[in-house]
Records
---
Amino acid sequence: MFLRRCSRAVLAMVRPGHRSLGPCVLSIFLLGATASAQRAAYERPPIDYLNADVDDAVARLQQRIDDGQTTLAFDETFGYLPAVLRELEVPVSSQMLVFSKTSLQIHRISPRRPRAIYFNDDVYIGYCQKGDVLEVAATDAHQGATFYTLKQERTERPALVRDRGGCLTCHASSRTQDVPGYLVRSVFADAAGRPKFGSGTFVTDHTSDFRDRWGGWYVTGRHGSMRHMGNTLCKGDDTSFDRDPGANVNDLSDFFDTDQYLSPHSDLVALMVMEHQTQTHNAIAAANYETRSALHQSYEMNQLLERPEGFISDSARRRIQAGADQVVRHLLMCDEFALTDSVSGTSDFAKQFQRRGPFDSQGRSLRQLDLRTRLFRYPCSYLIYSDAMNALPDEVRGVIYQRIADVLRGNDTSGDFDHLTPSTRSELAEILAETRPEFESAWASGAR
């Protein structure tokens, strides 16, 4: 993650008719880098990413359409967007707006016509005004991120078409932890939203410095004295700029026509949750892939070396442990950036997100937000409840829960989890013991 800085700042607010807008825009976007060399591993068994069947939310929606169990209403303004959001249970309050040309439909995106992104725990949907397609990604419990498009044309039976590798040009690289995945990324771009990759890029997640987030995005919300890069354009070739003009913005109507979107917001809290979620999804998928591959290779060697069936080699165990460690670091919010001021959004996203639970007997939930010094009140990701976590092979899932139990008992001396105070560890252990049965088993086994 890097950012090349220049000495002279020349910034202009992104306002319609502003004559001083220059040719450099800083932007963050859901994109990855080319990684054709990385593909071979997950294109072969046991992963077989491009050919294996999937059972994600989008595949299930398409099956309902094909079976005649549901239909998608076509809206004259937004096409299939409202219907798809309803069917996939993606809240409108999650809307975020990005004005950099950093997705499939670059000709439809600009500061005056930003792309809208919506998400829930497992699905991401991209919408462009007058776009040719809706861009959809969903997390399959076994295969990870799967990508689809839906033509924005009225038809009797709409088809969400699964991508067979084209999206991986951008969505499979070291930036997605070497698996097909998601990311939020920052680039420099010109005034039309075209990214200038030569000026440097960096990936954003919950560890990123607040001041390096959201360039190229519109951001609505309050964040006190902290500054970010949203709501601004950079002029000329300069890559350092004044962050004050885009700070603490609640109303985007001066920037573009907000009536052309389902919501007038690009919620700050939704952005923070999404950037955490993307890389945590990737870590879980990477652990899944690595474990399946390690076991597959170990079992093949068993036949060659006449070892007992089911024997797992030491090298395979080390690979499994490494994948588990990365998942634990993401789940327990290691290296999270410490907020120096309170933050808040402008939509109902935070309220709706926190209502979802699950809750323990004291009414506590991993979805409770802090937003004063960190993202979550209890620093353990809600994705620990996800289908992707549940579908991890037993060999790695057990290691993850035992590792979390060891950390919360205070048995880890690495320093990686020093952000978890004794009281926080105790609270997390209590919540997980009531809401995550596998953790309860790991916790009990450690007590013996």
---
Amino acid sequence: MSELFPVFAEHSRYVQRVRRRYAAELPLLGAGLPDRGVIAALVETLRAHPPGRSLASALRVARHLVLERLAVLDIEQGASVADVTLVMTHLAEVTLDLALTDARAELDAIHGAPRSAEGNDIAFWVIGMGKLGARELNVSSDIDLIYVYEDDGETHGARPISAHEYFSHVARRLYTLIGDVTDDGQVFRVDLALRPNGKSGPPVVSLGMLEEYFLVQGREWERFAWLKSRVVAPLTGLGAPADPRTLALRDLVTPFVYRRYLDYGVFEGLRQLHGKIRSEAKARAAGRPERANDVKLSRGGIREIEFIVQLLQVVRGGQFPEIRTRSTVKALACVAERGLMKPETAAKLVDAYVFLRRVEHRIQFLDDQQTHCLPQADADLAWIAGSLGLKC
């Protein structure tokens, strides 16, 4: 909370809506920052609590309760950006894990579990990209996902189908549980555009298909995208991050992202990517003055800081494994320690990045909208400034 004058989360129109609609459910979330276990327990409590919600409804209400809590902790109690983004990441991981378990159980009952030609169960990975992969998810973010299954095969049940068909059904069910907009809203907006061949590609790919894509068609900008990738679901069992089979996926991604030798050839592609980012930002703001103050896409914004860090990682990460980290803040410390950036420059970028992420969260807490532009209303600007300890 600001030391200049008290600033409260209830200025947020989103917080007001949650408190009106879910007043009976708010006490179900215990005090403090929710972790994975607390969020999973909250979903189960919501399903059991009268009137007894479906999984889809419980996931959505859990999100509202967690976001209301984060608004209070962030705005009134000074929770750090790292704490807020980690809780949002945990929320995504838990809800995806629960949705995946439900989707597979539903399909197993109809078709049986998919197995390879050797009779082995086939692993399935929900890969989080971008800020989800980096555990830096903002409070009104979408989630960028890629679905990969281990091997071809077919199900062994009363109505057998191919593994590709099975996991395609899983992907559709996941979207229904997580991305569909219902009376309770949605859990997260789901974006699959980063998958191989983008929107023209299949929603799920096998490990073999992914390997061939990397070798034949993988583009420079996709190395940036995969830099932050990691398995976010399932959390346990077959295909979990700790499963030895998941190492095969990591071993495929790492050499695609990081070249063994200093890679100067990547610079032209990265210049084009940077130019595209700036052109898109200008196009978005053209004729829309309210979009000129975009803390993410404007010159010197969040995206440009991330770009600086990822450029150094992609170009130098093959030589220096110690700079391979998904977190932007940690990466800045690593590149400075390795002598690839002046420590004072890295420190300034960290300070700017953290400040801009705090502003971004304030903007999004207002109405739970995926926007990065400063609001136009004086009262909203004063609230944001006051919550950051600034005079307006």
